[in-house]
Amino acid sequence: MESVLAGLLPAPELAPQRLHKAMRYAVLGGGKRVRPLLAFAAAELTSAPARRVEIAASAVELIHAYSLVHDDLPCMDDDDLRRGKPTCHVEFDEATALLVGDALQTLAFQLLAHQELCDAPATQLEMLKHLAIAAGSRGMAGGQAIDLDSVGKSLSVPELEFMHIHKTGALIRAAVKLGTLCGEKLDKPGEAALEHYAKCIGLAFQVVDDILDAEAPTATLGKTAGKDAEQNKPTYVTLLGAATARDFADELHHDALAALEIFGERALRLRQLADFVVKRQY
Amino acid sequence: MESVLAGLLPAPELAPQRLHKAMRYAVLGGGKRVRPLLAFAAAELTSAPARRVEIAASAVELIHAYSLVHDDLPCMDDDDLRRGKPTCHVEFDEATALLVGDALQTLAFQLLAHQELCDAPATQLEMLKHLAIAAGSRGMAGGQAIDLDSVGKSLSVPELEFMHIHKTGALIRAAVKLGTLCGEKLDKPGEAALEHYAKCIGLAFQVVDDILDAEAPTATLGKTAGKDAEQNKPTYVTLLGAATARDFADELHHDALAALEIFGERALRLRQLADFVVKRQY
To answer: What pTM value is reported for the model?
Structure first.
């Protein structure tokens, strides 16, 4: 994924150079690449050609990267550490970071429109639609807005879940969906099972994020630990306590694995990713 | 266009409400709608169905609106007046304005992917590609980056033109292109003539913007006048002087009209828009 993304981002020598350097800085050299890995793992269910999955996975990862750059800006989370490096606006400047996020989002849609991703342009439009809905005001950006509004408030667990289904979950579900759309069509039960898997994994990812933010050291995380408590944000740890939050993550893990049973051996990578999402230390 | 955009934007009652209200605030109730008008005028050359042009024109206008919201932020131009109203981050807050811009960009691509815009999905992908390239780091966002780098520097006229071809020109060209793609295919000479027209109009638009920024009062402009001089930005007025800048705009106007000759009467609206772009007072 690192070399794929490096090849798809504008070259650093290309004008405007500072913007292109900053775009590469924000995307390359770090990140767990969970969304691309999910796209590849899901693509194994539909025998999708690798090059197509590379493009689709990159588009999803670019949306994720843009959201991190904007999320770290002073007017949002005001963070200066990301993936163990200074955040984009610290390394460059705020205006450049703003444009980096903007241009990374555009590039994501450009990739999906430009490259041949499947056998039918109509399916390709469907991929674009899925990514746009996942990223927009009823998906990731909407989740961010709910997050903003929730600072200093006490949410219920269902309200917290609603926020995360949008903020993190939508893009994770899109990664899985786009991966499968690069190949042969899944049958309806397969589609439904995979959607359930993606939903569980998306939520588990956030529950574990909350646990790690409360418990892991900054050096392991590669981003500032303890930000949630410092910013008085409701999390699964503050609402449920650490032990119950861990139980919830384990339950989602179990549900995700159960949903994969109908796929048999072809879901090996998806199972491994479910394990990683729940057991990761960073 | 006002009612079309109002219908395509998420309803204000829909969650997250504050974000959706802010998105509507940023797009509705103002704006010259030059890009949509250009899309409609160009669509008359290819007998495109009105509903399709409405969607394509809206997508272009949403990209324009997002760029204004981000451009007005404190870390960019730091402006508090736009279309005679407080800018989005003044009326709401910076974090919301950041998300508004992000979500408006996403919505633009969602519209082009979602709706039926032409008779072939492959052509629709081409429209998406055109808009993405026009908006991205080699188009509008790239032009903004060059603009940032040029503050306080002395540019040559060709360097200034290079900046504006990206910052303003790319999206204006995309508006014309998308309008025609909604209908029957243009022949090659027609395509080339229309591209030349769009290039001239895009540049003329910026030259006139520079003249108005230097000469028109804030009340007429609906945005803060004299910002370029205050921010020490190179403009056509500072580089050429007001009289020569006006001559340059007239020359571009003449070239734009000449390019339309091969279309005869069908280019009436495009001619009227060329007149408006050069003769406007705001």
So the answer is: 0.95
